Amino acid sequence: MATTTSQTTHAASVPGDQFEVHDAATLAQARALLDACQTPAEMAQAVVSAVKRNEAWRGEQCLNLLAPEAPTSPTVRALLSAEIGTRAAEGHIGAVNRWFAGTQYIDEVEALCVELLKQAFHARYADHRLVASMVGNLAVYTALTQPGDLIMSLAQPIGGHSSNRPDGPAGVRGLHVVDVPFDPVELTVDLERFATVARAVRPNLVTLGASMTLFPFPIAEMAGIVGEWGGRVYFDGAHQLGLVAGGQFQAPLREGAAVMTGSAGKTFSGPQSGILVWDDPALTEPLTHAVFPVLAATHQVNRVAALAVSAAEMIAFGQTYMARIVANAQALGAALAERGVTMLGAHKGYTRTHQVIADVRQFGGGLEVAHRLARANIITNKNLIPSDQPEDWDRPGGLRIGTTEVTRLGMDEADMATIADFIARVLVEGVAPERVVDDVVAFRHPFQTVYYCFEAEMPPAE
Ligand SMILES: *Cc1c(COP(=O)(O)O)cnc(C)c1O
Burial letters for 344-375: b for 16+ Cβ neighbours within 10 Å, e otherwise? Predict the structure, then answer.
């Protein structure tokens, strides 16, 4: 149900019994704030103030350990507010392909972005116009499936993302989704069971990649199996995109995935949006047609410019930056385990990515723990883990912890031990978060520079 609020009667026009998906108390607070403003200019100021409060807190005083986040370089941030972002440039690159005239510099920026993305991923083709990775996933389903087709993807409790499930773009496309069998202990695809199930249901497309990923996927083996009937593997690398570009994770296109999508704002550390890369010329027409005119018109050229620069950063610094992210994640996993936190994948070295997963059921579960840690300025998220049951979905047993941001701010393995100390004080020792927060702020204080970019290449050596 859409709700419209007229400018002059905003308070009166929202009856109490109106259905809202948003938290009613938070919306009521916003209405009260607006009601207290004398003028629309003050209302605008209220918005700017909230943004500044977030910048001071999350930007300078928190340990942001959310796996889907990354700080961007000063140039990337500046480009996001550039004049070029006010220009309309729908269509493919090149004067004859555009609906609008006057796009010569926009074409130049977009062509630079496409070519930099190809270089960063060693791919023959790239698309830069996805305002979100979700849109990229829908583009793939639009291009490579028909309504009614059967696909296979990973279920949410083992890390699968809604975009590849019945409740997201795959469902909107009318696809039947069968689970990819997964080994909950080894935390990888159960290849033997996959072969049996896949040969029985013969999916056109198998989607790999997950929001919770600790270890690589057997892409080549799976592509070989579905190749028996002309099926394809699609890799949703939302989280791993930076690791792939930096050569620190598997190379999905080399290993047999037909196409890879991903989020530019997760490990890739660019502006939040989506990337699509592929090698097969036969896929170019269907994939790019699904992007334009199906799913993207104006596509935020300021964001494209920022994405281009972040691709150049990845080419220059990706190997080192991504290797350190993984080393920090492994160090953090080990340090937390030593301090009494149960970590998934401990017998395999905790992780080969930017994230580690804690089983925090003994500390009250993921929701409770994430909110308790946030009171100590430690930002994480609740996460489903393989042992969660369907009734646990809103209160899952896991906690996901990522090392992208702390690494880009220059932290190393010794700093991961300090972070583990903070977390263990709150969880294992039961210290009130309010008694830990000052130490977190003091520890975070010297780390205010974003590295692995042209403004600040490498953190100073210890
Ligand atoms: C985050 C995520 C997405 C969505 O990415 P957005 O850029 O936020 O749209 C898709 N797939 C997976 C596996 C993800 O983790």
Answer: bbeeeebbbbbbbbbbbbebebbbebbebbee
pLDDT digits (tens, 9 = 90+) for 61-80: 999 999 999 999 999 999 99
The rounded Å distance from CA 125 to ligand 1 centre is 21
Residue of minimum CA distance from atom 1 in ligand 1: 238
φ and ψ of 221, to 5 deg: -60, -45
Q: Output the CA 16–ligand 1 centroid distance in Å.
A: 34
- Report how far ligand 1's centroid is from the alpha carbon of 381 (Å): 15
Domain boundaries, the chain: 76-311, 317-444
Contacts 24+ apart (CB under 8 A), 391-394: 393/156, 394/367
Beta pairing partners, 234: 207, 259
Do residues 240 and 209 touch, judged by C-beta distance below 8 A? yes
Please work out whether the CB of residue 210 comes within 6 Å of at least one atom of ligand 1: yes
For atom 2 of ligand 1, the residue with the nearest CA is: 238
DSSP 8-state class, residue 294 = I
Q: What is the pLDDT of residue 155?
A: 94
Pick the CATH number of 76-311 from 3.10.20.310, 3.90.180.10, 1.10.10.10, 3.40.640.10: 3.40.640.10
Q: How far is CA 290 from CA 261, 283, 329, 359, in A?
A: 13, 11, 36, 40
Q: Centre a 10 Å sphere on the Cβ of residue 55 and count the other Cβ atoms it contains.
A: 10
Q: How many CB atoms are located within 10 Å of the residue 12 CB? A: 9
Range scoring the smallest mean pLDDT among 161-170, 310-319, 422-431? 161-170
Q: What is the pLDDT of residue 20?
A: 85
- What pLDDT score was predicted for residue 368? 97
Place of tokens 């609020």: 5
Quick check: pTM over 0.90? yes
Name the fold adopted by 317-444. Aspartate Aminotransferase, domain 1 (3.90.1150)
- Residue that is written with structure tokens 């190749």 in the block: 227
Q: Is 133 in the pocket of ligand 1 (CB under 6 A)?
A: yes
Beta strands in 116-156 (DSSP E): 125-130, 150-153
* Ligand 1: centre distance to CA 317 (Å): 23
